Amino acid sequence: MNLRVVMFAFAASLLLPVASRAEPIDENWHQWRGPDATGVSKTANPPIAWSEEENIKWKVAIQGQGTSTPIIWGNKVFVLTAINTGENDPAIPDPQDQPKTNYFDIKRPNARHEFVVLCLDRNTGKEIWRDIATKKIPHEGAHNDNDFASASPTTDGNQLYCWFGSAGLFCYDLDGNQLWERELGEARVGSSLGEGCSPVVHQDKLVIVRDHNRQGAIEVLDTKTGETLWRKARNEDNAWATPLVVTHSGRTQVVTAASDFVRSYDLDSGDIIWQCSGLTGNVTPCPVVEGDHVICMSGYEGYSAMAIPLTQTGDLSGSEKILWKKNKGTPYVPSPLLYDGLLYYSQSNQSILTCLDSKSGEVVFGPERVGQLSNIYASPVGASDRVYITGRNGVTVVLNRSLKFELIQTNQLDERFDASPAIAGNQLFLRGAEYLYCIEAE
C-alpha cells in the first residue's frame, strides 16, 4: 500500500460510524441492479405515466459523460461522470491524427478528464456535494456507446465505492469525505471498447472483476482500508458482467460470468468452487439467482442461457446437473429482470422481449416485439407488479407482471437512455445522455 492509501485508511478508521446507518436496503437502490441484484424493488411504487410535462419531480443536467446508473440511499442520489476538460497534452497526438489501430477506429484521447462523483438531494435534485476523484488522460479510448464513467457506484450505507476502472477506485463516506483510493492498474480492452463492470460490496469486502484482452483478474478488497485481501488472475477475453455475491451451501460465493467459464469463487479464500463453460463472447449481462441455481446468459455472436446449480463443485461444463439451457433470443448488453419466478430479457440489443419461467426455463410468452422501443441498452426493472423497459429512443414501456404480454403505458422523454433505471419509494430515476430525471406522481 502506498502512503496515501495508508493515510486515507487511518482517516477512515476515525470517520466510520460504529454501526451501519439505519436505512433498510429494501427501501433503497444501493447498487446497479437493486437490493437483491435482480432488477426488482419489493417496496417501490413508481409512476406508471410521465412525459416532459407530467410527473417530473426534477430534471438536472449532468455535465460530462456517463452511463452508470445512479444509486439511492436515504435522501441522497449518487452518480458518476467523466468530464472532458479540453486541456490537451501536446505529447499525445490529436485523435484525428492517430493511425487506425483497432476495428472500430477508436483513438486515445489527448485531453485530461475529470472523474467526478456527484451527490444530489433526492427531493430537489440540488447538488449536495461533488468531488473530482482524479484528473487524468485516459490511457485508451472507448466505444461511442461507452464512456469513462460506465461502472455504477455502490454503497453499504456507511461508505460509497466509486470505480472508474483504469482511472482508479475511490471510497467516500456519504458526506463526501474521501477515505481511501486505489489504483489497480490499466486494463487493455480488446478493440478499445471501454470498461464497465460495476463493483459489488458484501459486508466488509469489495469485489472488483476485470476481464479484458490481457491478463484480467478478480480482486477482493477490505472495505475499511482498500487493502487487497486476495487476487486471482483470469484468462478471459472482453467481458463486462458485474459479479453476483450469494451465500449458498454454507459458503459465500462470487459468481462471475465470462466467455470461457462462469466461475464461482469462495469470497473468503478466492478458491474456485465450481466452473461451467457455455456462454458466448463479450459477456455483459449479470447473473441472477433462482433458488438453488444461478442463471447466466449472453447474446453476442450467438445466444446462450444456463441455470447452473450453486450446490456443486468442480467443472460442470456439459453436465446433466445444469437445470436448463437456452440458445435463442438472449441479451447482449442488458441484464435480465428476475421478478417472482418470471425472467424477462431482450434479444441482443433489440426490442424483442421474452419471458421464461425461471425455475423450469419454459417460455411463458415471446419472443414479442415491443414496437414502441428502438434498441435497448438499459436493463429492465420491476416494482409493484409492473415491468419497466427503457429504449435508447427515450421511450419507456410499462407492462403488467403477468403470464402474457400486457402493455399498460408508453412514456416518451426527449433523451437517449443507455443507463439502467433505478427505483426507490415512489420515484423512478432515469439517466439520459444529458439529464438525470426523477419521476414521481404529482
Automatic annotation (TrEMBL):
The keyword Signal applies. Gene3D superfamilies: 2.40.10.480, YVTN repeat-like/Quinoprotein amine dehydrogenase. Keywords: Signal. It holds the Pfam family PQQ_2. Residues 1-22 form the signal peptide. It comes from the Bacteria. This is Outer membrane biogenesis protein BamB.
